[in-house]
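Support reply, case 0932

Customer input (verbatim):
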Amino acid sequence: MVSAGDAPPILDFSAFYSNDAAAKKKLVDDVRNCCLHNGFFQITGHNVPLDLQQRIMTWNKRFFDLSLEDKMSVGKDTTNTWNRGYELLKSQILEPGTLPELKEGFYIGDEISKAHPYFIHKKLNSGPNMWPSSSVLSDVEDFKSTALDYYAQVVSLAKDILKVLALTLDLEERWFDDFAEGAVATMRMLHYPSQPPDSPQKLTRGIGAHTDFGTITLLLQDKVAGLQVYDYQTKEWLDVQPTPGAFVVNLGNLMMRWSNDKYISNLHRVINQSGEQRYSIPVFFSGNPDYVVECLPNCRREGEEPKYGPITVQDAVSGSYKESYGRAEQYKRELAAKEAPVAQAKEVAVA
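Our regenerated output:
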């Protein structure tokens, strides 16, 4: 049983693939307890090879070591409109009232063409990936193949986790299959510079306190800590220590809504005061963008109205993206407006 003040437990997911009914039942019970408590847990014993995890993390670091000019050659705001490619530092504010976040990212998703229906109809984060040219990275084909292999295996693992989640809700194991068919998932390679020692901790974040937008998130951490999960019972931030080979798994807002708030999409943040560079790779599994989400069976009493009306995955997740990026743009506009009179005054004084 998960207790208040406990960091997310590490669960052995190999029980899901075994023929040991008792071990599988224990895994289901443990996952259910986590979903009811704070929506976070870690898993080992999955099918994503450690070697592949290490290779994609090496590529993560190599990409962010490139010059800003080279990274901007695949900038997501300059080369496309479908959320692929490089994202500058301080592009997002997830926690209202904080400064733009000290992280840079690189977005990857399913490799689809501009002829794909998802691209034509502007579905959530759907379009061709943006890869550096061979003049920027001579072995870019290895980067591409490693990233897409890793992406596919983590998406497959996410679908297995959905099967466990179905069992935690006393549903058929394959209950989420239609939702997972044609699912959109977004992989985000991230780099967090260490916060300056004189930065105001109350305002500066690697990533601000937020809940994830989609259904479930699978996060690969490197060796540097910084991820924290909020515990509502103790009102404490709990550190999630990196565990070699493990994925941090957490529920998103869509799963909380789907479960009628039975399960929790919890606040989490990153504050990197380690003095080292931090790297991580989350994969955000949203689901089929056209799937209509409405209250799950067993998540409301007979005759009780659900808390939320039906909504498509597309509408639920895309609205949250727009809000967080819009917040950063609004901050920059307000800052520029404040600085303009000062700059003008200096020009007058020099003149």
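We compared this against your earlier run and they match. Two observations from our side: The longest helix spans residues 313-350. The radius of gyration is 21 Å. Please reopen the case if you see a mismatch on your end.
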